[in-house]
Amino acid sequence: MTHHTEDVAAFEELFVSGVYDLPSAWGDMMPAKKIVDLGGNVGMFGLYAAIHWPAAKLVAFEPDPANAAKYRRMIADNSIACEFVEKCAGAADGTVTFAVGKQAHSHITDDGSGIKLPVVDVFPYLANVDILKVDIEGGEWPILLDKRFESNTSKLLYLEYHRHMCPVADFRGLAVKTLESAGYEIHHIFYNERLGAGVLHARRG
Q: Is the pTM of this model over 0.90?
């Protein structure tokens, strides 16, 4: 973790403010054998997952080279078993342009700016997933809107959704509609129209 960067904010969100803690009405943490972390950043959620579900298999995606280096160090320093994929998460294999070096806000661009990076279809990695975390700065939309998303097996979803790359103006409404159509119950954590982002937890039986 580099001080005076957004690494500190990520640490505070997970380990001080408890943004990823489930609402008390949902009861205790549900068991999990497989957890997938899309948009791993520097590894704070990966560490959180290893603490709460130490026996679970962890799969993490993080394409930004600087972030990925920190995630790999977190894995090594904490002896965490993790399948780490240093590529963009998407709904199809290919190549995208990506703005790197923006810490937690590194993202796929839609104007051709940035560097070329590989993107891989995440759905094969989601086989038998119990917990899915998605925070990929707009790159979530091809995944959420793919017809395969409804049949993914995750019972718990942590999602940060964005105006960026959303195909409609009402990005919050589309996130809610998509998750409810997939059978999720939603608990809203944060929404800011000006910032163009929101955070929610979702679960299903």
A: yes
Helices (H), the chain: 6-15, 44-52, 65-77, 140-144, 171-181
β-sheet with 197-203: strand ranges across: 82-85, 57-61, 34-38, 131-134, 156-162, 197-203, 185-192
Predicted pLDDT at 2:
83
| Furthest-apart CA atoms within the chain: distance in Å | 45
Q: Are 161 and 138 in contact (CB under 8 A)?
A: no
User: What confidence tens digit (pLDDT) does each residue in 136-171 have?
Assistant: 999 999 999 999 999 999 999 999 999 999 999 999
195 DSSP 8-state letter: T
Which sign does the torsion angle of CA 40, 42, 46, 52 carry?
A: negative
Q: Which CATH fold topology does 6-203 show? A: Rossmann fold (3.40.50)
Cα–Cα dist 41/46, whole Å? 9
pLDDT tens-digit series, residues 39-64: 999 999 999 999 999 999 999 999 99
Determine what percent of the chain is predicted with pLDDT higher than 70. Answer: 100
Q: What is the DSSP string of 71-121?
A: HHHHHHHTT--EEEE-SEEESSSEEEEEE-S-GGG-EE-SSS-SEEEEEEE
Cα distances (angstroms) measured from residue 39 to each of 24, 140, 194: 26, 10, 22
